[in-house]
Write a structure and sequence with these properties.
alpha+beta, four-stranded antiparallel sheet
Length: 276
Amino acid sequence: MAMSMRVTNMGGRVIATKRAGVRSYHQHDALGNTIALINDSAVVTDTYTYWPYGELRTSTGSTTNPFKFCGAWGYYTDTTGRTYVRARTLRPGLTRWMTVDPLWPKESAFFYCLGSPVLHVDPSGLGYGISRCRCQPTVTVSLPKKHPAYKCILTACLEFCRDVGNAVFDANAQCKWAPIFEKCDAVNNTYPACTQASGPWHTICGREICQPGGSVYNGHPANYSNYPDPEPQLSTGSNSTWQFCCVECKMRLCCWTMASTWAAYLKREAKCLKRP
């Protein structure tokens, strides 16, 4: 019988695993690759380095750990080297997916992360970026899978979720609180505040950006329900105000990007439902 493993995650990121009573804490690099495991005694038991598409380059230690390349996002690598990423399976040695993208031909059939694996991740297997957006036409518009409009709406939703991931990724990339704080100030002075009245993207962007273990303000997880502030938050000197400034920067940029995307999705959904 295979030995079971308990996985602990925070904010959608794998932070620890426990097997046979032994817990390992996962240390990640900026992309989300697991670069080390640490035990309860704060001793490094295993280390890893990778080639760009996820092949293991070097390793030390013998702890069983399937969450290596992009392990923080739940990429699961088996003993043959195949990496399971929810919707599809990645073959790092071939630098490509093993099955066709559901959005093909609008998306490349087998291309992984636009050919930029050291810049992007694809936790859903459907498009680069980080998003917990899910498509369930049977729930959102009460359509049975056999309905003529089901496939049309599902495809539209998958593209929308891809855009959510890309918007969040780009917002996080542009609004870094260190070392160029002025960029966050510029965004907050340029783009409108992300309000609950703005539409569903306020919740969508907030859920992705202001999650536990993610952006913080004064040491506490940011809460998107606190936005917007009456005036744009600007960097004033302390680390906490810089962080808060850039959390709002991410929210404003993500919401601005998603506004047109959401409107386009609603039009496409309505068009799908009108099909005979």
